[in-house]
Amino acid sequence: MDKDRASARLRVLLRHLGGRSAGAVIAHHTSGTVSPAGFLPQQFQYTRDNNILSLEQRKFYEENGFLVIKSLVSDADIQCFRDEFERICRMEVKPLGLMVMRDVTTAKSEYVPSEKVITKVQDFQEDKELFRYCTLPEILKYVECFTGPNIMAMHTMLINKPPDSGKKTSRHPLHQDLHYFPFRPSNSIVCAWTAMEHIDRDNGCLVVLPGTHRGPLKTHDYPQWEGGVNIMFHGIQDYDKNNDRVHLLMEKGDTVFFHPLLIHGSGRNKSQGFRKAISCHFADANCHYIDVKGTSQENIEEEVLKIASKIHGVKDVSLKDVWKFRARVVKGERIDL
């Protein structure tokens, strides 16, 4: 019976995404409004009442934990973000607090200022151009559907997934983003993830496990991969391998919004080019910090504080301090975060 329900749900999901097979889904947004009998507004747990999302879109996110909006960010903005990333790679700009990351297979080689050796930059809250992504009205109007009107930008990334070296290190293990976050409630957090070019299975698109946002936070750790694993690429240790998987094929400017408990990852980049995406995790300013000591998140706390000490020279700080440094209000007022 459970298997039949899962198959039925996947068929509905695939119709929403364009009727393709689970192996090659092209992501489409929903724009129509439906009024199914018996579905009442008070049943919504993961979306807020406003006039942005249609009832069908709200139902889809509630059921699946993600929603794709097509062509949301302009080509002009994406080009600006690409240009700024290249300036960072050439070391023409050095934003305060920025973390520059390289693939584990090249991390110890001599650094040559080039976008071909940088796989990710994160914590770009002090870079005026890249942070502009987090303030785009077209992004925030959807973010508010999940966080409410007082919005904090909590975690920023521009991902430059490299062509795989053959050791499969360009893949990202299945994980839940909440593993990294010492703030709650999870239903008031959302990620906006925008494709900066065409993204498909060949260059390592996102893969999501629909509906897993309704489950608990699972234990994460480094996967035991023969070719090595990139820094802080923790993965879920005990996910159900029978879960349906959906690969999100996206065009430049398409943006997926997803819940922090949604299990997701990405495959290796089998193309010859770099696959770029820009993202930000947003949270309701009314969220609160929690102490992760004694929980499954304690391992990431230890790693984050060790990195903060090594890269930025800061000691005697807490995980809460690190996140308060990253956090920026982008709409409304700053309250607890």
UniProtKB/TrEMBL annotation:
Keywords: Dioxygenase, Iron, Metal-binding, Oxidoreductase, Vitamin C
GO cellular component assignments: 9+0 non-motile cilium; peroxisome
Catalytic activity, reaction form: 3-methylundecanoyl-CoA + 2-oxoglutarate + O2 = 2-hydroxy-3-methylundecanoyl-CoA + succinate + CO2; phytanoyl-CoA + 2-oxoglutarate + O2 = 2-hydroxyphytanoyl-CoA + succinate + CO2; butanoyl-CoA + 2-oxoglutarate + O2 = 2-hydroxybutanoyl-CoA + succinate + CO2; octanoyl-CoA + 2-oxoglutarate + O2 = 2-hydroxyoctanoyl-CoA + succinate + CO2
Required cofactor names: ATP; L-ascorbate; Fe cation
Name of the gene encoding the protein in the UniProt record: PHYH
GO biological process, one term: fatty acid alpha-oxidation
Class in the EC hierarchy, top level: oxidoreductase
Pfam families xrefs: PhyH
Protein name: Phytanoyl-CoA dioxygenase, peroxisomal
GO molecular function, one term: L-ascorbic acid binding
Homology family: Belongs to the PhyH family.
Species for this entry: Delphinapterus leucas
UniProt EC number: 1.14.11.18
Pathway info: Lipid metabolism; fatty acid metabolism
